[in-house]
Amino acid sequence: MRQNLKALKLQQENIIQQISDRAAEGRPRLAALDDTLDRLELERQSLEAEIAAFSSEGPDMTAKVEALRQRYNPEQTELQMRRFVNIARDGKDEAAKQMLMPVVRQMIQKVVIGPAPGHQPASLQVHGLIASILAQMDVMDRMERQFMVSAQREFEARVASGELDTEDKRKKLVDRYIEELH
């Protein structure tokens, strides 16, 4: 809105300059220029009033936001959302899939179906936020698998070396792996 206001002011200045130039040259006034200048002035006043309305101090929402934070634990909400997405992704809960579909559709910018060589299935490219999310999920899955393999090797090496000779030591190490994984 501020950019529009600036553009309006520039248009007004340009028209005022044209009117001044015409007067200096002794040419008659043009009603069209005067009318345009009046219209721009009304638009400018309206836009300034609109900007002032947006700029005015609104109610303090800090208390309401804090009450929401106390009411809803963000960590628990994130955990529940991950569980919900995993349930929907696994495809076992039809209701969860139906609830998630509108959200997924909003994240898709476009889908391109292209031919594939030979008798291969057609290629499918998805563009938009969903593509980034799927790529991140793929990377996270790969990192999780690598972590699990690394943790398994480390665990086996420590057991073989006798470092984890008691059940308590093994449990502590496994708990640390679980904590790192989450």
How many helices? Answer: 7
Span between N and C termini? Answer: 45 Å
Helix/strand/pairing class, anyone?
mainly alpha
The radius of gyration computed from the alpha-carbon positions, rounded to a whole number of angstroms, is 32 Å
How do the strands line up in the largest sheet? 1-2
**Beta-strand percentage?**
5-15%
Tell me the major beta sheet: 2 strands, antiparallel
Mean pLDDT: 80
Spans with pLDDT under 50 lasting ≥5 residues?
none
Number of separate strands = 2
Shape: elongated
SSE sequence, one letter per element: HHHHHEEHH
Percent of residues in helices: over 70%
Provide key terms for this protein:
182 residues; mainly alpha; two-stranded antiparallel ribbon; elongated
List the helices and strands and how they pair.
Elements: H1 2-24, H2 31-55, H3 62-71, H4 74-90, H5 94-106, E1 110-114, E2 123-127, H6 129-161, H7 167-181
Antiparallel strand pairs: 1-2
Helix pairs in contact: 1-2, 4-5, 6-7
What can you see in these coordinates?
With 182 residues, the chain is mostly helical. 75% of the residues lie in helices and 5% in strands. It is built from seven helices and two strands, in the order αααααββαα. It has helices spanning 2-24, 31-55, 62-71, 74-90, 94-106, 129-161, 167-181, and strands at 110-114, 123-127. It has a two-stranded antiparallel ribbon. A hairpin with an 8-residue loop joins β1 and β2. α1 packs antiparallel against α2, α4 packs across α5 (94-106) and α6 (129-161) runs antiparallel to α7 (167-181). The longest helix has 33 residues, at 129-161. The radius of gyration is 32 Å and the shape is elongated. The mean pLDDT is 80.
